[in-house]
Structures are given as C-alpha cells and as structure tokens.
C-alpha cells in the first residue's frame, strides 16, 4: 500500500473526559428567604437538575463548613442559615454549576 501524504490521517483526540469535573451542570437559583422563619434569613439553593440527594447533602455539608453555619436539604433544596449568598455562589461555581442570585 503506498504511503499517503503526511496530514491525511484523521485527528483523534487522546484526551479523556472521564474523571474530569463537569463544568456545565446547569443553572441553580440562590435566594435569600425570611418568610415563616421569625425574621431570620436563610439562603436557599434550588432548581438542581440531574443531581441526587446524596450529592446535595455532600454540597450542603461543604457549604456549611465553609460558612461556619448550620443547614439542611429540604424538598430538593439546600438551605443554609444566614445570608451566605456569595459564599454559596463560590462553592457551587467550583462544583461546576452556574449559580444565579435570584430575587431581591
């Protein structure tokens, strides 16, 4: 078989996507709420797509530790005590989400 010109072979990427962090995991809304909580503020991250309860609990624990406050996972939303929108946004961005500060 005759040898073809040097650039004729198709280029195949050797980079693998497995094991790398997904940097486009979707939009997440971050809202500060005070309703029905005795006037105390709570920061809520909601509208997660394609993420299980175990991963939400893991993210909640990471955010709690970084902020030094308590929190929980309720009805598919992560609730953190206090107005911690900026810290929550930073951690969710590192996790590959696109956080949006929604509401007032």
UniProtKB/TrEMBL annotation:
CDD domains (alphabetical): YciH_like
GO terms, molecular function: translation initiation factor activity
Gene Ontology BP annotations: regulation of translation
Pfam families: SUI1
InterPro entries: SUI1, SUI1_arc_bac, SUI1_dom_sf
SUPFAM superfamilies given in the database record: eIF1-like
Protein name: SUI1 domain-containing protein
Organism: Rubritalea profundi
């Amino acid at each position: 078989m005759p040898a073809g010109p040097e650039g004729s072979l198709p280029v195949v990427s050797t980079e693998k996507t497995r094991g790398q962090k997904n940097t486009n995991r979707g939009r997440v809304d971050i809202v500060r709420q005070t309703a029905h909580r005795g006037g105390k503020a709570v920061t809520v991250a909601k509208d997660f797509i394609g993420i299980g309860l175990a991963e939400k609990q893991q993210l909640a624990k990471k955010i709690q530790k970084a902020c030094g406050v308590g929190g929980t996972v309720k009805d598919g939303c992560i609730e953190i005590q206090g107005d911690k929108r900026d810290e929550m946004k930073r951690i969710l961005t590192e996790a590959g989400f696109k956080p949006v500060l929604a509401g007032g």
